[in-house]
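In this supplementary section we document a worked example of the pipeline. Step one takes a protein sequence of length 276 as its only input; no multiple sequence alignment statistics are reported here. Step two produces a three-dimensional model, which step three serialises into structure tokens for compact storage. The input and output of this example are shown verbatim.
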Amino acid sequence: MNATSFLHIGTCSWKYDSWRGLIYPEDKPINYLREYSRHYNTVEIDQWFWSLFKGDAAVLPKPTVVIDYAESVPENFIFCIKIPNSITLTHHYKKQKNEPLRPNPHFLSIELMQRFLNTIEPLKHLIGPLIFQFEYLNKQKMSNLEEFLEHLADFAYNLPSGFTYCIETRNPNYLTDNYFDFLLEHGLHHVFLQGYYMPSIFELHAKYTEKVGASSVIRLHGPGRQEIEKLTGKNWSSIVAPKDTDLELLAAMLTELDARKSRTYLYVNNHFEGSA
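The serialised model returned by step three reads:
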């Protein structure tokens, strides 16, 4: 990519001891985020996603942690932040299969969203994409795409301006013309998730190229966690499952997005090849 590239590349997290000797010093105490920001200018914050707990408690980031992150990176750094799942879950997670579904009272709550944005205010000048990650929604949780978009439309209309809001759906059947048209109409952006049971992002991009807006996020995950964690022993210091073909297709996709001046944020997970 050239000097005027609209592409930002980083990883899905940063605090890994097994990256010592790769981008971190071998043995001295370090601020992992500060060291990371010497090599990359963007990273995904995943840790605030897990936020819905017993008794409908919605846990928001600790102010001290937010301030620490803000003080650990240079002024041109970009945080991609996953919105708390207390906002994106339609129901609480079930601990037992025969357990009845329990609705999440915070689902698409503008009030909780505003509280979250207030909490991360110290990062405001460093915030890039804000990702709403929705789990796979079966018929008991959401009847169809149309119902999902109805909920999302009301929520999107009331979202505070000035942020890049991105949608990640885990329902492959939702990825249609109606979905991409909806995102364009409401100023939302798509998250291309490569991995798990989702369709190839390269085929998806080729099909909907003209419907991808001014920004997009690409998240590179593998087909599943268990196999690669077994291969690596959760030591993320080397590639154990190379995906050279995917990377060639990715280069072509990024070149096309860059040519159209679509601001693209690419985040690589350790589970993609074994080392992000």
